[in-house]
Design a protein that fits this description.
The protein is mainly beta. The strands form two sheets. The protein has a 16-stranded antiparallel barrel. It has a two-stranded antiparallel sheet with strand order 1-2. A hairpin with a 2-residue loop joins β6 and β7. The protein has seven helices and 20 strands. It is about 15% helix and about 40% strand.
Length: about 500
């Protein structure tokens, strides 16, 4: 191949593409097609396309399934590990309930309790090939400077019902080390990941119908049912080794897996959503035991941080439109030595105050064999840097940061589904020569550009090989930067081509 005239990255891309095509073709040759998270498929009996336009982007049915606490049944397996005696009255004594249950089984009318129970456990893996326009900056070990194929992440899930009213989406993930290795001794490859445990039920009062519930989760916005808030926003799969803009608002993942929160929500008349959740930072030892680097967060929450969510979603015919707002207020005691270079574990007594306010909207239309989804979100963050400024970490006593994302997604087909997605993103904020001294510009957080992706889901609407135990998604993604970390100079060098195959089992 040395004399072929093709660059090394192209040969690597072709090899990776060949691998993806082989695995996808191997799976498709056993069609019929599959579901999204297989444990949800086993529980509900529904195909991937019922809950998802694209994995993990939700349809109205998928949003309702999540609101109801991941407890909806209907599949070939029993929903919960505990019999619920569907044909017995709650007023009957236990012995009479057992007789009613046995009689129901004998007559073949025993509801879900005559089915086998399979724990709602699944796995996921993403293998991706990354090519950046310029080589990665050193150090890059354990990777090459460019054209890397990496298996990351690999996750295990509990996804489904625990009781009739309690369910969970709980994830444990292996992430490959970053280029150059972990920045401090508390880096981990295995960590707990997105976790959302819910109690949910329904009620009726006069003209109002309610879905209501309690959520316990570890990542602000992971409980949200729309794909406009940070935890489940596009891109759904991304390179784990390519350079990305250094600056994000606090609510865009800075606290993920570092906190625990409990909140209450309600969805009124299938239209108005209200939620209030409070978060606290987990103990340093607890974070480390769960595989989370405590220094990966900007510090510790002083007290509790409230998160709110309000959205209205009218639906008419095959159309739905959501308009909403969300936000969080956090007082953070920053780390004295976030790099752990001096071995110091501690935070400043003063706190920095972050007020994140977001506005979002989504329009969705279901055609006869296609979906159109338009999404937009804007987050404004005010930063009152009492601790950082007093200790020389910023040139300004206060800063602001904005984050804008505008997205269009067109999905065609049921089985053999193709998804075309485009997104414009823009990060902008106040200049600070001290806070941003390590960025390319040395003073500005501003970045903007585009992401385009073509995805193929071979198992979309019916049953897959070994249904309901397998699902797959293949994507080709390109990220283009107009500005990167405050400057247009060299911004294109961070442009990234990412070919990936996503498997769920």
């Amino acid at each position: 191949m040395r004399g072929s005239g093709f660059p090394l990255w192209w040969r690597g891309f072709v090899a990776a593409a060949g691998f993806v095509a082989f695995v996808t073709g191997f799976s498709a040759s056993f069609a019929p097609p599959a579901q999204a998270l297989p444990s949800f498929a086993r529980q509900t009996g529904q195909p991937c396309g019922t809950c998802h336009t694209d994995c993990p982007a939700l349809t109205p049915y998928g949003r309702r399934f999540k609101l109801l606490g991941y407890t909806t049944g209907g599949g070939q397996f029993r929903t919960t590990p505990f019999p619920v005696f569907p044909n017995a009255s709650d007023s009957q004594p236990p012995t009479d309930k057992m007789r009613a249950y046995a009689k129901a089984i004998e007559s073949g009318t025993g509801g879900s309790d005559d089915k086998d129970y399979v724990p709602p456990i699944s796995m996921m893996a993403i293998v991706g090939f990354t090519h950046t326009q310029a080589p990665l900056p050193p150090p890059t070990s354990p990777y090459a400077q460019n054209d890397n194929t990496v298996l990351s992440p690999v996750s295990g899930f509990w996804g489904g019902a625990i009781t009739d009213h309690i369910g969970a989406f709980a994830q444990v993930t292996y992430n490959a080390p970053p280029p150059g290795g972990f920045p401090d001794p508390f880096g981990h490859t295995w960590t707990w990941d997105n976790t959302d445990v819910r109690y949910a039920s329904t009620a009726h009062a006069g003209p109002f119908d309610f879905i209501y519930g309690i959520t316990a989760n570890n990542n602000p916005t992971v409980q949200d049912i729309w794909n406009t808030t940070p935890a489940w926003s596009f891109p759904y799969a991304a390179s784990t080794i390519a350079s990305t803009p250094a600056t994000k608002t606090l609510i865009e993942g800075a606290l993920a897996a570092h906190v625990g929160g409990i909140g209450a929500y309600t969805f009124i008349n299938d239209m108005l959503y209200l939620e209030l959740t409070g978060y606290r930072t987990l103990d340093f030892r607890a974070q480390n035991s769960l595989g989370t680097d405590p220094f990966g967060a900007p510090g510790l929450i002083d007290g509790a941080a409230p998160y709110w969510r309000v959205a209205i979603e009218p639906q008419w015919g095959l159309h739905s439109l959501m308009v909403g707002t969300f936000g969080m207020y956090s007082a953070i005691n920053p780390w004295i030595d976030p790099s752990f270079a001096t071995g110091t574990i501690g935070t400043f007594a003063q706190s920095d105050k972050y007020a994140d306010v977001g506005f979002d909207a989504q329009y969705q239309y279901q055609g006869s064999n296609w979906w159109l989804t338009l999404r937009g979100s804007f987050i404004h963050e005010n930063q009152k840097l009492d601790a950082t400024f007093a200790n020389g970490g910023s040139a300004n006593p206060s800063n602001f940061l904005n984050s804008l994302h505008l997205q269009t997604s067109l999905v065609w087909g049921a089985d053999n589904r193709f998804v075309l997605t485009g997104q414009y993103f823009d990060i902008s904020g106040s200049s600070d020569a001290v806070a941003y001294a390590g960025l390319a510009s040395g003073f500005s957080p501003n970045s903007n550009g585009f992401i385009g992706e073509l995805a193929y889901i071979p198992f979309g609407a019916s049953q897959a090989p070994g249904w309901p135990w397998l699902n797959a998604r293949v994507g080709l993604q390109y990220t283009y930067y107009n500005k990167f970390d405050g400057t247009t100079v060299g911004a294109h060098q961070n442009n990234t081509l990412f070919l990936h195959a996503w498997f769920a089992m």
